[in-house]
Amino acid sequence: MAASRTIIVAGAGIGGLTAAVALADRGFRVLVLEQAPQLEATGAGLQISPNAARVLIGLGAAERLKSVSVAPDVVRVRSGATGGDLLRIPVGRSQALFGAPYWVAHRGDLQSVLLALVAERPDITLVLGARVDEYAVHPKGVTVATAGPSVAGEFNGLALIGADGLWSRVRPRLLDDDPPPRPAGRTAWRALLPAHLVEPEHRAATVDLWLGPGAHLVHYPVRAGALINIVAIAQDDEIVTGWSAPGGKDDVLKHFPESRWSPKARALLARPERWLRWTLYGRPPTRRWGRGPVTLLGDAVHPMLPFMAQGAAMAIEDAAVLADALARRPDEPEAALRDYEQRRRDRATSVQAASRRNDHIYHLGGPAAFARDLVMRAALGGDLVLNRHAWIYGWRPPAPTGPIPIPATPESS
Q1: For residues 163 and 141, what is the distance between their CA atoms, to the nearest angstrom?
Q2: C-alpha span between 293 and 159 (Å, rounded)
Q3: Fewer beta carbons within 10 angstroms: which end of the chain, N or C?
């Protein structure tokens, strides 16, 4: 066993926390460094498809997730202009088809579930207010220097995992001449409404996806049905700083004009008094994910546009494969990280490409939109679409190998 069994994870988002729990369950000590001085339940809703749900269930999150999530019966694809159904995808059959449920939840609730799992594992240390500033690689692993409002110091580990999101601080120190994320020409607005303030049809256990020219709307219940998560995305070249810039109702409605959008859709968009907005960014796929005892995970390496609802799911999958790779080769961390990267790269790239294709399909206008709607209504069918997603939803994490053997000696601390 190497001199240190500590893995350093930069970032306490969904991917970083999942990795921490998965690594601890394989016998590693984990140090999670998070630059935020406190963790807040921010963000929009997210969809936990069966491929991700299976990982979380394996980590012991099932009962907690059931208490804060909703298991939708269908994804209802609707015409933005008429409100009529184009397609109904029976995701409620996920348990039977793929062996795991399809959940929707608020990002903050999923993060809280993961934090509860972290708190139960004595081999995980979470340090807030610790921004990764630099790192140095040496024969024993890696030393990370941090700066921040509350923590500045150095931490040693066997490996460093950059799970610090789209604006990763680890990535530019790892990848030479790496360009910054590129705006995708889309702005997203999000809002949460108490369920009793919306029409009964919007409280159903359904993911509603409305498609229109240059824009789309998605909404579904979260927090066990108590809240309705609403996200509107439209073509927009304005660059917004941060994830939670204030957004006005009039600005949202401007992108969903009554000449093109159903009164039902516009009535829902008019309900929230408070909107938050952010700019969507993307990156082209990269062949290099890591070097030496350092690698990347989740949005830090393969940010997903949200049009496949797989951003969180891919980070969760990454975490499961990372833990497996390191557990299988604990004495060869660099080789283990290259194995992790090789096992994940093509799949993540394929999902990125599928997300970009859906961006185009969702936002068609004119004759192309008419043709899309006709195909959805007449040719596809919800069962066929669900089966076409089997390559995503049917993914299974590596079979557990059990905790790694660690000698109880001072050298292993």
Answers
A1: 18
A2: 5
A3: C
pTM: 0.94
Q: Which domain covers residue 263, as residue numbers?
A: 41-107+182-282+364-398
For the segment 126-132, the average pLDDT, to the nearest whole number, is 94
| 409 is a domain residue | no
**Which tokens sit at 152?**
């500045």
Number of domains in the chain: 2
Q: Are residues 13 and 63 in the same domain?
A: no
Residues 102 and 160 in one domain: no
Q: Minimal CA–CA distance to 351: which of 363, 342, 359? A: 359
- CA geometry: angle at 325 spanning 319 and 330, to 5°? 120
d(CA 61, CA 274): 31
Same domain, 351 and 390: no
Comparing 407 with 169, the larger pLDDT belongs to 169
CATH code (residue 296): 3.50.50.60
Residues 296, 354, single domain; the answer is yes
Distance of alpha carbon 133 from alpha carbon 152, whole angstroms: 9
Percent of the chain topping pLDDT 70: 96
Mean pLDDT computed over 332-351: 98
CA distances from residue 362 to 68, 128, 172, 248, 303 in whole angstroms, order as listed: 29, 39, 33, 24, 19
295 and 163 together in one domain:
yes
Amino acid of residue 105: A
- Active-site positions read 220
Residue 123 lies in a domain: no
CB 342 within 8 A of CB 23: no
**Partners of residue 401 on adjacent β-strands:** none
pLDDT in tens, 373-385: 999 998 778 899 9
What is residue 44's predicted lDDT score, i.e. its pLDDT? 82
Q: What is the pLDDT of residue 42?
A: 76
Q: What is the pLDDT of residue 156?
A: 96
